[in-house]
Amino acid sequence: MDKDSSDLDLLLSMGFEKHRAEIAVSETSGLQGAIDWLEQNQEKSLEEITVQATSDETDPSVEPAPLAAGEVPRSLVCNECGKKFRSQEQAQFHATKTEHVDFAESTEEVNPLTKKDLDELREKLKQKKLADQKAAELEARQADAKRAMYRKTAEQARDELEKKEMTKLMKGKQKEKQDEIVARTRVRARLAADKAERQRKIENEKAEREGRAPASETVHLQSTSSLGVSTSKPASAYTETRLRLQTPGGSISKSFAAETTLFEVASALIEEGVEVKSFTQNFPKKVFDGVDFGQTLRELGLVPSALLIVR
Length: 311
Description:
Number of strands: 8
Largest sheet: 5 strands, mixed
Structural class: alpha+beta
Shape: rod-shaped
Number of helices: 8
Radius of gyration: 51 Å
Order of helices and strands: HHHHEEHEHHEEHEEE
Oligomer: single chain
């Protein structure tokens, strides 16, 4: 089936009168052009349309003579596509456009459209335009909805990825910080031990010169005396601290290096979904806010253990 025949079938299925649809297809190129042509010529009678079509098919600048009086109505039919033509000029023009050569005479008379037919055509054309418009609007809304859903999904995926990357980065930095604190604490402890050893040697040498017992032996004797008094371990000797953190959702116990800053403690709570603005210590009564977040737990006197209320 060629394109002209397909366009004609579509026009007929839309309710257009066959002869007018045939002229529209022969006068234009494409389905939309034929529909526009029918709309533009819907007020004209079939006679006027036929005369206009005949004029266009022969010489657009020369208007053909009207039908002679008493001329018997007839038509020609193209056996290759089924189109009917009122005059030989129309058939010749069709043959020139389509290269169809198989024509035959037909006794079928092409009747003009009545006013009722025209009204029905207008209404059908109007309804078709409305239906096409609604379909286009629906398609546009569906396309917008799909684009919006795609954007939302893409944004959620991007946010989730950024969150995971940030969490991974924070954990990596926190581990590096913890390792650095532990290493620094070990170095400090080693330096303190070396210093204490040097001081002990100096005191022992001085005691030997003065003919008295070394200071280390005196301390040992005092610690093992019958009094049974033992000296508690100083806070400076601890490398870790145990914090009990009272949050709105319950109590959390965590161990941190003594050189951990209060900011890092807050960050660890935030990662667990706890909002932190400040910490409060009941005894002795003290509030640690953003100004104190840069200090270590040792500097704040929170070693070897402490109870903090999270605000």
